[in-house]
Amino acid sequence: MTLAYIYRNGNYWYVAPAFKPYNNSVTSATAYGYLAYKGKTVRDAASYYHLNKFNMRANSDGIWSIYGTFQTIRFNVQNTSGKIVADAVAKKSSSNMKTFTDLNKMKAYLKG
Length: 112
What we know:
The protein is 8% helix and 40% strand. It contains 1 helix and 9 strands. A hairpin with a 2-residue loop joins strand 4 (34-37) and strand 5 (40-44). The protein has 112 residues and is mainly beta.
């Protein structure tokens, strides 16, 4: 399961994805940005060069995050009217992602 620390500052959202593999068999990981509409991926960084991808590394506790330092990704999603639409889905956990609004709680959960 992937975990994410997420918070808002002004018009931007910040997210720090992280995970700890169960059997420590992961040798490399990359976080890919993507755009989705109504639950379906429209574009992803693997095939669309305007979206970024981020290298992930394990820290000394075996927790994988962007560059191994829990670095955040900043994003801002607006519709054509200028309304921020990322509000509708931010902070919601799903079957394969758990979100946190406190970085220290996420780190403790991963170490747990």
